[in-house]
Design goal:
The complex is a heterodimer of chains A (284) and B (490).
Chain A (H helix, E strand, L loop, with lengths): L1 H12 L9 E5 L5 H19 L3 E3 L5 H9 L5 E4 L1 H10 L4 E6 L7 E6 L18 E4 L5 H15 L3 H4 L2 E4 L3 H10 L4 E5 H9 L8 E6 L7 E4 L3 H5 L3 H10 L4 H5 L6 E3 L6 H9 L5
Parallel strand pairs in A: 1-2, 1-3, 6-7, 6-8
Antiparallel strand pairs in A: 3-10, 4-10, 4-11, 5-8, 5-9
Helix pairs in contact in A: 3-4
Chain B lengths: L4 H19 L9 H13 L9 H28 L4 H11 L3 H11 L4 H25 L4 H4 L7 H35 L7 H10 L3 H16 L1 H4 L5 H7 L13 H10 L3 H4 L3 H42 L10 H16 L2 H12 L3 H25 L10 H35 L7 H10 L3 H28 L11
The chains are: A alpha/beta (284), B mainly alpha (490).
Chain lengths: 284, 490
C-alpha cells in the first residue's frame, strides 16, 4: 500500500507532457456555463487555426480563479472584465491588454427591477428603492458590482448595505437576471449585453422585469495576455494573437459574445476602472 | 430533575439558541420557493440520465479524489498517531483539522491552481489530523498486557504490529471505512471550487435550471454511498488505491515558482510588504477585525448555536426511526433509508440547494446543518438504543419513548452532540462561501479581491474559533461525565 501511495504521488507530480506547448486561455465565468463553453470552444478552434499552435480553453468557477490561473501562468491569455483585467495585469508585470469589443469602450450597467416594486422603466435611481432587496453579480465583476456600487454610493451617499434591506451576490449576470425575474430580489444590476442576450433568447419575461436605469459609460471587457508568451511561443507571438483577435469577423462567433467586432486596447484604457476600484477599496 | 447538571446544561443551550434566533435572519425571499422545490423533486423523480454525458466522469473523479485523499490522510495519520503523545504533534493535528477542506482547497488553488494535487491535499491534510487523533485514541484503548509480555529484544515495529495494532485492527478498519464515506462527500463538495468532481457539474446544472441532471447526479451519489459496503472490500482496496491516482485527470500543470511567491509575498500582510512597519500592520489588523472578522465571528456563533440545538432536537425526534423498540422490519428499513439520505447529503450541497430555492438568509444554512448532522446523530443514537433491553411489561408508544428509551440514551446523545459542535461550527463558517455572512463569506471576498493576506488571517481566526469550541465541548463532556470513546465517534 505504501508503494502504491508513493507511486500515486509520483504520478501526481509528473508534469503533463502533452500540455507543454499548448496555448491555454480562460474567461471570467460571467454567464451560463454551457454558453461560455460553446463560445470559447469556437474561439479556441479559431485561434488554433490562425496561430498554428494547440489552443485549449479552460473554464473556471470564479472571477478570482481566472485571475489566479493567469497569474500562475497556467493560462497565458484571458477574457477579463475591467476590474479582473486590472487585478491580473497588476499581479503580472509585463502583461498587457490586447483587444476589447467595440461595445466595451463604452459599456454600461443596467439596473433592473421586478414589476412588484412599482418602479417604472427608465425611472432612474430614487429614494423609492430604499429598503428594497438588491443583488449584484459576482463580487469581482465590473458591470455587476464595481460600477453599480460606485454609482449607488454616489447617489445615496452611503454603502449599499445601508440603502437596501438586503444585498446579495448572485454569482453571474444570467443569475442576476433570473433572480430578479423570479422576485427573489427586487432589484439587480447587470451587464447590459447579457441582459439583451437573455431577452433575445426569450429567457426573460419582460413583463415582470424592466430596466429602470442605465449607468454612464465606462470601459469593460478585454483580452489580456502575459508578457512572457513571446519567450515561450516565439517572437512576436503576442502581436500575432492580437492580430488574430482583431481579425475575428465570423458573425456567428462575434454574436456569441455578443460583440460587433474587436478593436485594439491598451492598459491605460482601464485607468478609470483602477481608480474606482481603489476608491471602493477593492484594489490596493 | 432541575438539580441534574445535564438538564440544566441542555436548557441553557436551548435558551441561548432562542436568544440567538432573535438576531438571526430567517426570511424566505424568493417569490415561488415551493414551485422551485417542486421542480427539483420532479427532477429527482424523473432524473435525466441521458442528458449528462459527464455523469461517468463526475463519479469517477469524485471516487478518485476521495480514495487518494483519504488513503494519503490515513497513512499519514497512522504515522502521526504513533507519536501523538508529543504536544507538538497534538497541537499541529488540532490545527490542521480545524481548517475545513474547502478552505484548504482555496489555499492550494492559489499556487497549485487547478491541478489534482490541490484537491488531494485539501482532503488528505485535514483528514490526517483527524485520523491521527482517532487512531491514537483507538490504540490507547487496547490492552497493554500483550506488549508487556513480549520477549526482550523484540523490534519496535513488530512489537507494535503483533500487540497493539492487531488488537485495534477491527476498530481501525471500521473507522477508516467510515471516513472513506466522509471523503466521498468532501470530494463531491470540492467541485464547487473547481475540482472536476460531482459538485462542479451539480453547480452548473443548478445554475442553468437543469433539474433532470441535478436529480441524476444526486441519485447516483446516494447510490454510490449506500452501496459502499458492497464494492469496498478489503481485497479490492489495494487495487482501488493503485488505480485512483491515474483517474484524477490532468488539470493544469503546476508552476513551482508560484509556491514560493505565495509564501514569501502573497500572504505577507500588505502594510509589511509596503514597508509601513508595525503601526501600519496594527491599523490594517484593526480594520480587518472590526469590518470583517467580528461581524463574521458574530454570525458564525449565532448560526452555530441555533443549528446545534435544532440538530439535537431533530436527532432525538428521529432516532426512533431505526430503533427496534419503535419500528417493525419494514418501517425500520424505511427509517434507515431516510437517515442514510439525510447523512449522505453534505451540508454544503444541501445549503446550496436550499439557497437556490429560498433565497439567501440563515434559514437554508440552519436547515442544511440540522438535517445532515441530525441524521448522523439520530443514526448513532438509534443504534445505541438497540443495545437496550427493556422489561417485558415496558409501556408502548410515547410512554416508552419518554420514560424508558429517551432518558437512557440521553447521555450518549449529548456526548455525540458536543462532539458535533465543532464540526457544525466548521461547516457554518464554510457556508459563508455561499453568501451567508459567516466567516467564510469574508474569506471568499478576500480571495475574490486577490488579497490572500486577509484571507489567511480570517482562516486562522476560524481555526482558532473551532479549536476553542472543541476545548469547551471536551470540558462540558467531562463535567457532565459523558462517556466518550473513540469508536463511538461519528
Amino acid at each position: 500500500m505504501i508503494k502504491g501511495l508513493m507511486l500515486a504521488f509520483a504520478v501526481l507530480l509528473a508534469p503533463s507532457l502533452a500540455s507543454a506547448e499548448t496555448f491555454v486561455f480562460t474567461a471570467i465565468p460571467d454567464e451560463d456555463e454551457t454558453r461560455l463553453q460553446q463560445r470559447f470552444q469556437k474561439v479556441a478552434d479559431y485561434l488554433a487555426e490562425e496561430l498554428e499552435v494547440d489552443v485549449r480553453f479552460v473554464p473556471v468557477k470564479s472571477y478570482a480563479a481566472a485571475v489566479t490561473a493567469f497569474r500562475n501562468n497556467q493560462v497565458q491569455l484571458a477574457w477579463f472584465g475591467g476590474l479582473s483585467g486590472v487585478q491580473a495585469r497588476e499581479h503580472v508585470p509585463g502583461s498587457r491588454a490586447l483587444a476589447q469589443g467595440v461595445e466595451d469602450a463604452e459599456f454600461v450597467t443596467y439596473f433592473i427591477a421586478h414589476e412588484s416594486t412599482g418602479l417604472q422603466e427608465g425611472e432612474g435611481l430614487s429614494d423609492a428603492m430604499r429598503d428594497m432587496t438588491f443583488t449584484f453579480g459576482s463580487k469581482g465583476s465590473t458591470s455587476g458590482r464595481l460600477m453599480p456600487e460606485y454609482y449607488l454610493r454616489e447617489h445615496f451617499g452611503e454603502a449599499p448595505e445601508e440603502t437596501f434591506s438586503r444585498v446579495g451576490f448572485s454569482g453571474n449576470h444570467s443569475r442576476t437576471a433570473s433572480l430578479v425575474a423570479s422576485g427573489a430580489y427586487q432589484l439587480g444590476a447587470l451587464n447590459y449585453t447579457v441582459w439583451e442576450n437573455e431577452v433575445a433568447a426569450g429567457n426573460i419575461d419582460t413583463d415582470r422585469v424592466n430596466v429602470v436605469w442605465e449607468t454612464p459609460q465606462y470601459p469593460d471587457y478585454q483580452w489580456t495576455i502575459r508578457g512572457d508568451v513571446d519567450e515561450r511561443f516565439g517572437d512576436g507571438f503576442a502581436d500575432r494573437v492580437q492580430q488574430a483577435l482583431l481579425d475575428m469577423d465570423d458573425p456567428e462567433l462575434l454574436d456569441s459574445f455578443p460583440r460587433s467586432g474587436f478593436i485594439p486596447a491598451s492598459n491605460d484604457d482601464y485607468a478609470v476602472i483602477r481608480e474606482v476600484g481603489q476608491e471602493l477599496g477593492l484594489l490596493d | 430533575m432541575w438539580q441534574s447538571a445535564t438538564v440544566r446544561t441542555s436548557l441553557g443551550f436551548i435558551a441561548l439558541a432562542i436568544a440567538c434566533a432573535f438576531f438571526a435572519d430567517f426570511q424566505i425571499s424568493t417569490q415561488a420557493p415551493w414551485q422551485e422545490l417542486g421542480r427539483l423533486m420532479l427532477g429527482l423523480v424523473m432524473p435525466d440520465f441521458l442528458a449528462v454525458d459527464f455523469l461517468g466522469e463526475a463519479l469517477l473523479r469524485t471516487l478518485a479524489f476521495a480514495f487518494v485523499g483519504v488513503g494519503l490522510g490515513a497513512f499519514t495519520g497512522l504515522l502521526l498517531a504513533l507519536v501523538f503523545h508529543s504536544a507538538w504533534v497534538r497541537t499541529g493535528c488540532a490545527f490542521v483539522r480545524a481548517i475545513h477542506e474547502l478552505f484548504w482547497a482555496l489555499i492550494f488553488l492559489q499556487f497549485f491552481g487547478l491541478h489534482p494535487l490541490t484537491g488531494v491535499l485539501a482532503i488528505a491534510i485535514p483528514y490526517a489530523g483527524i485520523f491521527a487523533k482517532v487512531y491514537a485514541e483507538i490504540l490507547d484503548e487496547t490492552d497493554p498486557q500483550p506488549a508487556r509480555v513480549l520477549p526482550q529484544g523484540s523490534g519496535r515495529v513488530s512489537g507494535l504490529a503483533f500487540t497493539r495494532l492487531s488488537q485495534a485492527w477491527p476498530h481501525l478498519v471500521n473507522y477508516t471505512s467510515y471516513r472513506l464515506e466522509c471523503g466521498l462527500r468532501s470530494s463531491a463538495v470540492l467541485g464547487f471550487v473547481g475540482m472536476p468532481t460531482l459538485g462542479y457539474y451539480l453547480e452548473s446544472a443548478f445554475a442553468q435550471g437543469l433539474y433532470g441532471s441535478v436529480g441524476a447526479l444526486l441519485i447516483l451519489f446516494y447510490v454510490l454511498i449506500a452501496t459502499l459496503k458492497l464494492w469496498v472490500r478489503p481485497r479490492l482496496l489495494p487495487f482501488y488505491l493503485l488505480a485512483a491516482p491515474f483517474l484524477l485527470g490532468s488539470g493544469l500543470p503546476i508552476v513551482w515558482s508560484n509556491v514560493s511567491r505565495f509564501f514569501t509575498q502573497d500572504i505577507v500582510p500588505t502594510p509589511l510588504r509596503n514597508g509601513e512597519g508595525i503601526s501600519g500592520l496594527m491599523t490594517w489588523l484593526l480594520d480587518l477585525m472590526t469590518t470583517q472578522a467580528l461581524p463574521g465571528i458574530w454570525n458564525t456563533l449565532l448560526l452555530t448555536q441555533i443549528a446545534l440545538v435544532i440538530t439535537g432536537t431533530l436527532a432525538m425526534m428521529l432516532f426512533p426511526l431505526i430503533s427496534r423498540h419503535f419500528t417493525g422490519r419494514i418501517s425500520g428499513t424505511l427509517g434507515h433509508v431516510a437517515l442514510v439520505v439525510m447523512r449522505s447529503t453534505p451540508e454544503y450541497l444541501l445549503a446550496f440547494i436550499l439557497l437556490q430555492l429560498w433565497g439567501p438568509s440563515m434559514l437554508p444554512a440552519v436547515v442544511a446543518l440540522a438535517l445532515h448532522n441530525g441524521g448522523i446523530i439520530a443514526h448513532l443514537v438509534g443504534q445505541r438504543s438497540n443495545q437496550l433491553t427493556l422489561r417485558q411489561d415496558a409501556p408502548r408508544g410515547l410512554d416508552r419513548y419518554a420514560y424508558e428509551v429517551a432518558p437512557r440514551v440521553y447521555g450518549p446523545f449529548l456526548a455525540l452532540l458536543f462532539y458535533r459542535w465543532e464540526i457544525i461550527m466548521r461547516e457554518t463558517a464554510i457556508l459563508g462561501i455561499l453568501g451567508i455572512a459567516t466567516l467564510g463569506f469574508y474569506v471568499d471576498s478576500a480571495i475574490q479581491e486577490i488579497r490572500f493576506d486577509r484571507a489567511l488571517v480570517l482562516i486562522l481566526i476560524t481555526a482558532l474559533l473551532n479549536i476553542g469550541v472543541d476545548i469547551l465541548a471536551r470540558r462540558l463532556r467531562s463535567r457532565l461525565r459523558l462517556r466518550h470513546t473513540a469508536t463511538s465517534e461519528p
